[in-house]
Design goal:
The protein is of the alpha+beta class and about 220 residues long. It contains 7 helices and 6 strands; from the N terminus they run H-H-H-E-E-H-E-H-H-E-E-H-E.
Amino acid sequence: MNRKDFFKKGLARMLDFAQENATELVSGFQEIVSKETPPPAPKKTNTKKVKKQTEFLLPEQIKSNRKRKIRNVQFPPGALDETEFLKKCTGCGDCIYACPYSVLFPVFEENLEKHIPRMDVNLNACMLCKDWPCINSCKTGALIPLEGAPKFGQAKGIFEYCINSKTGESTCSNCRDSCPIEGVVNFQGNKPSFSKNCTGCGQCVSACPTFPRAIRIK
């Protein structure tokens, strides 16, 4: 056998061997790859909760809670007696918008099916405007011009909350300094007292620096 035939036979045997073992090699390679390659991660599902759309109630849908009285609220200055005022007030809100200090606010009366203007002088004091814009804005006569000063209530001191009771001295006189009517607030020692001429406007309450406030309008 010459050299040329020797190489031909050797190459033929190699090709036969490769062909016979090709299938086995491919399957073995696939097995190795499948072991080394991690399985695909599961698809993430959208777990975010869909927020429920907020429903806003109309004023006439809001029911008032008559079982619990939260505030000592009053009618606006110049209001007629309760029965007549509730009849004549249309709930237009003109007096509320006319107040330069935003003292008045609407309260929905379910039985009347309308908003009635109210005020809470323990929360926001009436400034006793000289021209009474709230009264002048009323077109139905539910609010009438005042003869003299209004009367919303009577200031009462809670001396245990007063700064003067803590210091034992006449440290604070904000209530007297803020009162728009002279002579209503007087001091007996370092303890304030309030005369019957008090209008209950609440300006002394707003001026009181303590918390809880040492003055309440009742």
